[in-house]
Amino acid sequence: MNDELTFRMEQDSLGSAPVPWDAYYGIHTVRARDNFTVSGRPAHRQLMQAMVLVKKAAAKVNGRLGDIPEYAAEAIRLSCDDILGGMLDDHFIVDAYQGGAGTSTNMNVNEIIANRAIERLGGTKGDYRLIHPIDHVNLYQSTNDVYPTALRIAVIPLLRLLSEELSSLQEAFQEKERQYADVLRLGRTQLMDALPIMAGQSFGAYAKAVARDRWRLYKAEERLREINIGGTAVGTGMNAPLKYTYAIAEELREITGLGLCRSDFPMDATQNMDVFVETSGLLKAAAVNLLKISGDFRLLNSGPSGGIGEYKLPAVQVGSSIMPGKVNPVIAEMAGSVAMRVIANDTAVTLAAASGQLELNAFTPLIAEALLESLELLSHAVPLFKDRCVQGLTLDAERCHEHLDRSGVMAAATVSYLGYDTAAELAAAMKATGRPLGELLQERGLMAEEQIKAILHPLEVTKPGIPGSGRGV
């Protein structure tokens, strides 16, 4: 086929280049495509949609102000709606890993919107006399205020979604706390036998940790709502009229429903990425909790014959191609893997934010890629962990009691009455003979039967105070 029929020629300040005739992107995107053949993945869809929202808001404002013709503003607005509906997703082709602080992604968005608007007006793609990617779609904007603003718009809904999923996980732990409130099991410190606890208490501790994660994410949103749109290239607002700057911030607040507000110092929000470091750090904290909890589940589920085997995780798939009957804790392992990735992404966000220089951070696309991936992974992994692991988890109460009775840790309840040395002798005797503490205490005449019952009552050995004292002291 003749190249003239398959490509159109477009020009920029560097020269000309062929663009596929049916492509909604243009020459700037083609150059970026050729320069950044890295991962084969475009930027996250949430980011692209957020950038389109910024363009839609700008077109509406510039149309109202009379700075672009009304027909152009309407065509751009409708084209943005087409894209937000998923119509042209395949044309966002710039790799997520790129140089230029996001300029390539911004131009990819500008060109797609412009060519769709041209098409809506009956023109031919690439005829930028009708709608120009920069003069119309990008009017009064810079990548440096569009990209950070769009990233905030992309992050906030994902934070809210993750918060909802964490709330459900917290509730699942609280249900397990109630379900196993009366099951006594062996508490362990440094993987060694320690003191008795109620199994429900451990689930209560998990619920508290997840509740803190929810609260931290809620607080992070406050700083994410401050946007630097209107600050243009370095935050000073050069080439953007004040009437536009104030109007677009309000327009974005209205069309997103996210409670956005204009930064009182756009230069700060343009060059400093610490708000994203903070958000990523809070995701890391949630990931740390998820990794710890999933690790506890795997350990307490281990065996079952040769391990602890006190927890029974749901069997969701066959575990081995060579060992019949083996079932692995794959959901807990998945949760741990996601947590590790989020922790790694936090390192990337930290390094990228610290590598900004002077009035701009060139590595904002890496911050966006890592942060949005962490949010997506956690938002998917948390409900899977809840649905396929936590909710179906059961306890082997007999195994819990067996381990507790054999351990000797119940002897700690007698320290305040018999002294440390005698309690240690009792613990050793329990381990050596396998006999319960109550029998040994009676046999040796160390305590009366009623006192033994009072001291060794499950509620006495799992609450603050001296067991059996009745005074909580």
Automatic annotation (TrEMBL):
<dbReference type="Pfam" id="PF10415">
    <property type="entry name" value="FumaraseC_C"/>
</dbReference>
<dbReference type="Pfam" id="PF00206">
    <property type="entry name" value="Lyase_1"/>
</dbReference>
<keyword id="KW-0456">Lyase</keyword>
<dbReference type="InterPro" id="IPR008948">
    <property type="entry name" value="L-Aspartase-like"/>
</dbReference>
<dbReference type="InterPro" id="IPR022761">
    <property type="entry name" value="Fumarate_lyase_N"/>
</dbReference>
<dbReference type="InterPro" id="IPR051546">
    <property type="entry name" value="Aspartate_Ammonia-Lyase"/>
</dbReference>
<dbReference type="InterPro" id="IPR024083">
    <property type="entry name" value="Fumarase/histidase_N"/>
</dbReference>
<feature type="coiled-coil region">
    <location>
        <begin position="159"/>
        <end position="186"/>
    </location>
</feature>
<dbReference type="GO" id="GO:0006531">
    <property type="term" value="P:aspartate metabolic process"/>
</dbReference>
<dbReference type="GO" id="GO:0005829">
    <property type="term" value="C:cytosol"/>
</dbReference>
<feature type="domain" description="Fumarate lyase N-terminal">
    <location>
        <begin position="19"/>
        <end position="343"/>
    </location>
</feature>
<keyword id="KW-0175">Coiled coil</keyword>
<dbReference type="InterPro" id="IPR020557">
    <property type="entry name" value="Fumarate_lyase_CS"/>
</dbReference>
<protein>
    <submittedName>
        <fullName>Aspartate ammonia-lyase</fullName>
    </submittedName>
</protein>
<dbReference type="InterPro" id="IPR000362">
    <property type="entry name" value="Fumarate_lyase_fam"/>
</dbReference>
<dbReference type="GO" id="GO:0008797">
    <property type="term" value="F:aspartate ammonia-lyase activity"/>
</dbReference>
<feature type="domain" description="Fumarase C C-terminal">
    <location>
        <begin position="415"/>
        <end position="462"/>
    </location>
</feature>
<dbReference type="InterPro" id="IPR018951">
    <property type="entry name" value="Fumarase_C_C"/>
</dbReference>
<dbReference type="GO" id="GO:0006099">
    <property type="term" value="P:tricarboxylic acid cycle"/>
</dbReference>
